[in-house]
Specification:
This protein is of the alpha+beta class. It has one domain. Helices cover about 30% and strands about 25% of the residues. Strands 1-2-3-6-9-10 form a 6-stranded mixed sheet. The longest helix has 16 residues.
Length: about 190
């Protein structure tokens, strides 16, 4: 039965080496010796061949309060804003010294996306957790209106949320992902960049 489930499952993203777990994202210190209080990504996914050059993933089991989860995004932003000298002697965002990602389109310099995946184990409702975290992190993801009727996301972080149940049902190519600030669920690619 388990073997058949593996055969019937939709294709995943990347290969095993596309994933790294428990990765420090220092706002102080170095990559090897991160400062106290830095962000730690549960998973980092690098799969440019699948259209995902860089994706940070946070997993939750609905036991933590939404404010604790939201505080993780404060740490992500401190890391994203940190600049260091690269090998060419020029200042650049620290994360770009380790990972490559496409340059921002149209001058809209957003940070790498973070995917928040909830597994309904704890007593808190996963959809309610998503709503609360979205409200508490609004300053990090909400763009500002520009003339012409569109939003500018410069300096913002795309935050996308889903549940393990939706992932199992739809896979990454299905409507399992809610980008904070949007009405409908989308596939992973549309939710994280568009």
């Amino acid at each position: 039965m388990a073997a058949q489930a593996c055969v019937d499952a939709s294709d995943g993203i990347g290969i095993i080496t596309s994933y790294v777990t428990e990765v420090a994202l220092p706002s102080t210190g170095t990559w090897k010796n991160p400062g106290v209080g830095c962000a730690w990504a549960d998973i980092v996914l690098i799969a440019p061949e699948a259209g995902l050059p860089l994706l940070f993933i946070e997993a939750g089991n609905c036991t933590e309060d939404a404010s604790v989860i939201a505080a993780k995004f404060d740490k992500y932003m401190r890391h994203y804003r940190r600049k260091v000298k690269d090998t060419d002697g020029l200042d650049k965002p620290m994360w770009r010294t380790r990972w490559s990602a496409p340059d921002p389109r149209w001058g809209d310099a957003s940070h790498p996306p973070v995917l928040l995946v909830f597994h309904q184990v704890g007593k808190r409702s996963a959809p309610k957790q998503m709503e609360r975290v979205a409200a508490l992190t609004r300053d990090h993801w909400q763009g500002r209106w520009a003339e012409g009727g569109f939003r500018i996301y410069e300096g913002k972080m795309p935050i996308v949320a889903t549940t393990l149940e939706l992932l199992r049902e739809h896979g990454p190519a299905g409507p399992a992902f809610w980008r904070f600030g949007r009405e409908d669920r989308q596939n992973l690619w549309d939710a994280r960049w568009n």
